[in-house]
């Protein structure tokens, strides 16, 4: 494992992301419950954003027994930043509180920003694509049903 490697931690329904900074430690963005995912998203609260804390912990503590792997999946798209630049940003950002948004500023956005200087989240993008596909299919079925009912009504009128 090298400084600047993105660590994908499998937590079942979602992945938590951290960035390796050496000596067994990672930097990551966590929500107030410490999970790195916004629990409010699945509760009665309509909010998908809150304050997040940028923390440094051991990889072992962050993984908490969950499987993890190095996943620098954007290396073919972007050039990783130099280690000294990453370290400077780590020093500036550690301990800060920033806005956490499940779909726009999550832990994956945070680590891709540190590694590449670009903020992206495949996990959030995939979620949004699935929502749009599902709503598109649902919307398509509604349109087909509406057209069919209009066609039936027209046929009844002309019989």
From TrEMBL:
InterPro entries with a match to the protein in the record: H-rev107_PLA/AT, LRAT_dom
Q: Which UniProt keywords apply?
A: Hydrolase, Lipid metabolism, Membrane, Transferase, Transmembrane, Transmembrane helix
Q: From the Swiss-Prot or TrEMBL record, what is one GO molecular function term?
A: phospholipase A1 activity
Mind naming one GO cellular-component term on file for this protein? cytoplasm
Transmembrane stretches, by residue range? 131-155
The domain of life is Eukaryota
BP GO annotations: N-acylphosphatidylethanolamine metabolic process
Q: Where is the LRAT domain?
A: 6-123
Family, per entry: Belongs to the H-rev107 family.
Protein name (database record): Phospholipase A and acyltransferase 4-like
